[in-house]
Amino acid sequence: MEKTLRQCLSDAQAGNYAIGHFNISNIEGLWAVVHAAQNTGKSVIVGVSEGERDFLGIKQVKALVSSVRDEFQVPIFLNADHTYSFDRVKEAIDAGFDSVIFDGAKLSFEENLKETKKCVEYARSVNPEILVEAELGYIGQSSKVLDEIPEGASLSEETLTKPEEAEKFVKETGIDMLAPAVGTLHGILRSGVNPEINIERIKAIKKAVKVPLVLHGGSGSTSSDFEKAVEAGISIVHISTEIRIAFRDALKKDLQENPEEVAPYKIMKGAVQAMQKIVEDRIRLFSGE
Ligand code: G3H
Ligand code: ZN
Fold this sequence. Notes:
Aldolase_TIM, TIM Barrel, binds glyceraldehyde-3-phosphate, alpha/beta, zinc, two-stranded parallel sheet, FBA_II, 50% helix, binds zinc ion
C-alpha cells in the first residue's frame, strides 16, 4: 500500500535525511517536480501558497497531484503552504490536501497558539492523516530577490525561535510539524549570499520537541549548510525562489533566442528543464546522495 506523508516523514526522521518541498505556480512546475521525483526515486512535497493555489485552482491542483500520483506511482504529496487564516486552512483541508501550514508567525505567541490549535482540531475532525504545520518566528514573506533583509525578520540569537517556546507551542497545539526561525529567510538577497543557518539552534530545538522540523526559506543557503541542517534534525526543506528564478531566466532566454516561436508547449520546454534541474539537485542533496 502507498505510504502516507506521515510515514514518509517518519522514515526521513529515522534515516536522518530530509524530504524536499518545492513550490509550484503552474503545470510546468508540477512536471519539473514529477520528473525530478521519478529520476531520483524519492518522495517529494509540492507546495502551493495562497497566491499559487488561487492561480492554479485549489481543487484543480489537488486533482493534478492525485492524477500524477496514481498514474506514475510517485510518492508526491500536496501541501497548502503559508496559510494566514483558519478559513483558508479549512478550504485546503476540505479540498483533500495532505498537509497544511498555518502561518501565524506575525501574530503574538498566544494568538498564534490559539489559531494553530483551532486548525489542528479541524484537521483531526476531518482526517487524522492530514498533517498540520505551524510557524514560530518570522523569516519574511516573499519568495523573490530581496534588496534588504525583511523588516522584523528573526535572525539574531535573541530573536530566533527558542527551544522552550517551541516545546510549549508543540505541546499545547498538538501540531505535527514545526517551522522554527533558525537563520534562513524567504527569498534570496540580491548579493546572492543569504545569512548562515544556525545549526546549534536547530539541534537545541530538535532536542526540545519530538515533531519533525521544517526549514523554510531554503533558497540562497549553501550546500554545506543544508547538509549540516539535515544532520542536526531538519526533516523537510522548502525551496521556492531558486525555482522561480530558473523559470524566469530560461523563459527569457528561449523567447529571446526564438522570437518567432508561438507554441506554448515548445516555449515552455526549457523552463521545465531548468526547474527540474534545481529540484533534482536539491532532492539528491537533502536525501544525502
Ligand atoms: O514556503 C516556501 C519556502 O520557505 C521558500 O523559501 O523562496 O527562500 O526558497 P525560498
Ligand atoms: Zn516558507
